[in-house]
Amino acid sequence: MNHSVNFITKTAVVASIYAVITWAFYFVGYNAVQFRVSEIMVLLAFLDKRYSYGLVLGCAIANLTSPYGIADVIIGSLASLFVVVMISITRKLLGFNKFALYTASLWATISAAIIAYGIVFIFGAPEGFLFWTVMVAIGEFVVVTVVGAPIFAWIISKESILKKFAFDSMVE
Question: Which of 4, 112, 120, 130 has the highest CB neighbour number within 10 Å of its CB?
Answer without folding.
Answer: 112
